[in-house]
Amino acid sequence: MRIIKLESELAAADIARKLTEAGLLLEQQNTADTMVLLQVLDCDEAYCAKVAESIASFLFNEWVYAYINERLSERHSYLNDDEREYVSLLTLHALRKATIGDRTMDVWEQDLAVALEQMLHKTAVTHLDLVGFMRFRARDVLSATDTGTEEFVSQFLADREYEEFVSLLRYMLESQPSTRQVVHVFCTDERMWLCDETGALISDEDVSQAAYQVSDDGEVNVEDLAMSVLITRSPCKIVIHDITHAAPWPSFSETVERVFLERATRCNHCAACTLLEHGDTCPSAVDGHLLAMPDDYDV
């Protein structure tokens, strides 16, 4: 007979379920829910391998998920249950696809299963603290988990802040009556600007002046100014000409689409965009409109 004592402060109920589903015999689980006793009647190599594979699978799935969730509870207690679950699942999914220390998570799992099997063969009674085992055998995985968790929390908070920002802009837009004006928004890697249907540059001195007055350092982001002008004018249609390459998230064109919804459409790479991509910086007649590309443009 071989006895295996598994101890874990995380997801102990899950390890019991995992082993039971694998057809392994559990003798008992203590009242503190941190210890599982596995009584092995047949101690041949195949059986021990099955035990080791089941434990390793648990460690890199249910246990890691519980580890992430606990870290979130400790370090980011302001997140609610649904938010913690969302970040935990994102982190776990990213880890499953990652390469950590030149090994994929599948390889890590296989290597730990081999190490576990070797331990099971050494003595008749094996007492295994899963937390200590992971810290000793999979330190790089835990380090990557900690880093990934913090990165996804930062991303989640940025996404939430952006959603709140978009909601505020949409609320401001809804307070403005829609006009019959059509505005073309041009976005390149170097600059962005607004034109009307005739190709004339759009500016708004009142909006610009107000923005500069409330600015602490006298500098105003041109995209913020452009959004203020768009909301103030509330055009019935916005045509987006976006030829940026790998624009940082969130891009201005994406924000325009999120705020103006069905009013905003993309040009689908029109002739004006083709000229811009080929470096035509001179005013040009395109589809009956004047394409104006300013050297220094303030909205």
Number of domains: 2
The total of helices stands at: 10
Main sheet attributes: strand count, strand direction, barrel closure: 4 strands, mixed
Total count of strands: 12
Tell me the quaternary state: single chain
Net shape: elongated
What is the element string, with H for helices and E for strands? EHEEHHEEHEHHEEHHEHEHEE
Rounded mean pLDDT is 81
End-to-end C-alpha gap: 81 Å
Give the fraction of residues assigned to helices: 40-55%
Cα gyration radius (Å): 29 Å
Question: Strand share of the residues?
Answer: 15-25%
Low-confidence sequence ranges:
281-290, 295-299
Give the strand line-up of the largest sheet.
Answer: 2-3-1-6
Helix-strand makeup class: alpha/beta
Protein name: Sporulation protein YtxC
Q: How would you describe this structure in keywords?
A:
about 300 residues, four-stranded mixed β-sheet, disordered C terminus, Spore_YtxC, Sporulation protein YtxC
